[in-house]
Specification:
By secondary structure, the protein is mostly helical. It has one domain. The protein contains 4 helices and no strands. Helix 1 crosses helix 3 and helix 3 runs antiparallel to helix 4. The termini are far apart.
Length: 114
């Protein structure tokens, strides 16, 4: 998913007055977390230039869910924010689990349990 598509989808779900620049910064914040998970350098914000984000489909819905939560937080919509974060956290957990399953290092001998 790219920045403009994520913003457009979130705007459909949550009509708002938040600037596109602010929404783009929230997306890049999340991409930083994705980069950490994937072990790649954190992407530099290139707004207003558009580019694809790190989490691929079908797990890229995390971007629009995160934007919805941030918009509700900015609008002081506490109940909606809590619901959005619950949905985001579930999608984020699923995306992280998928990433770890499919990108596991064969020589690692498995995951270490602490």
């Amino acid at each position: 998913m790219n920045t403009r598509k994520a913003i457009a989808r979130a705007d459909e779900l949550r009509p708002n007055a938040v600037s596109e620049e602010m929404k783009a910064s929230w997306i890049y914040e999340l991409d930083g977390k994705v980069a950490e998970l994937q072990g790649v350098p954190v992407p530099e914000s290139k707004w207003p230039e558009d580019f694809d984000h790190l989490m691929p489909s079908p797990y890229d819905n995390i971007y629009e869910l995160y934007l919805c939560a941030q918009i509700d937080s900015a609008n002081l919509e506490t109940a909606l924010y809590e619901n959005d974060m619950e949905m985001f956290n579930a999608a984020w957990d699923e995306a992280r689990a998928w990433w770890r399953r499919t990108h596991r290092q064969p020589e690692s001998g498995g995951w270490r349990v602490m």
